[in-house]
Amino acid sequence: MRAQIPERPGSPFPIEVAGIVTKGFGRGSRELGFPTANIPPTDIPPQLDRVGVYFGYAMVRQEVFSMVMSLGYNPYYKNVEKSLEIYIVHEFKSDFYGESMRAIVCGWLRPELDYTTRDALIQDIRKDVTIALTALEQPAYAQFKEHPIFKR
Ligand code: ADP
Ligand code: MG
Q: Where are the alpha helices (DSSP H) in the chain?
């Protein structure tokens, strides 16, 4: 099911994402224990056309962190709308709604899957985080922590 992470990022990566963190339905932290910072659907870059789970780096409050990103459709919207949400691997002392977030998407982890239980989903997200952190230790990926998008 999970593809091997390539030794170095290939096309279309890396992909830049930037936007203001907006409010979603609050399910990430409440139901899963993984808060996801959402950016407006209008800020989803067109190169990100494949629905699923990605990894990379994200910056909030001038600091760059490893992240896991989910791109998918929220069935609760009347018009089925794609959402982009980023779980940052860091314990924040406070929320950052309304603040700007920039990210570099470095690679693909897996497609969106259907789960029979919430625990199965949580297990898979934990696996996503472990795989992402391992990949981001490779120099070919780690270099993106210093990407110019984070210096602007
Ligand atoms: P929402 O549906 O509004 O996105 P979530 O439950 O997904 O609600 O929580 C996301 C919010 O939590 C983010 O917008 C951000 O302000 C805050 N937050 C705190 N810690 C993190 C983190 N490690 N990663 C992402 N967002 C975080
Ligand atoms: Mg969220």
A: 27, 118-137, 139-142
Q: Any idea what DSSP says for residue 117? A: S
Residue 85 catalytic?
yes
Express each pLDDT in 97-134 by its tens digit. Answer: 999 999 999 999 998 887 888 888 899 999 999 999 99
Helix (H, G, I), strand (E, B) or coil at 78: coil
Whether 76 has a pLDDT exceeding 50, the answer reads: no
DSSP state of 2: P
CB 109 within 8 A of CB 9: no
Q: Which of 85, 91, 99, 137 is catalytic?
A: 85
| Rg of the chain, C-alpha, whole Å | 15
Q: Which of 61, 53, 68, 56 is nearest to 145 (CA)?
A: 56
Instruction: Find the angle CA(105)-CA(152)-CA(51) to the nearest 5 degrees.
Output: 20
Looking at the CA of 24, name the nearest ligand.
1
Separation in Å, CA 91 to CA 66, 88, 97: 12, 8, 15
Among 96, 101, 128, residue to substitute to test ligand 1 (most atoms within 8 Å of Cβ): 96
Ligand 1 in reach of 35 Cβ (< 6 A)? yes
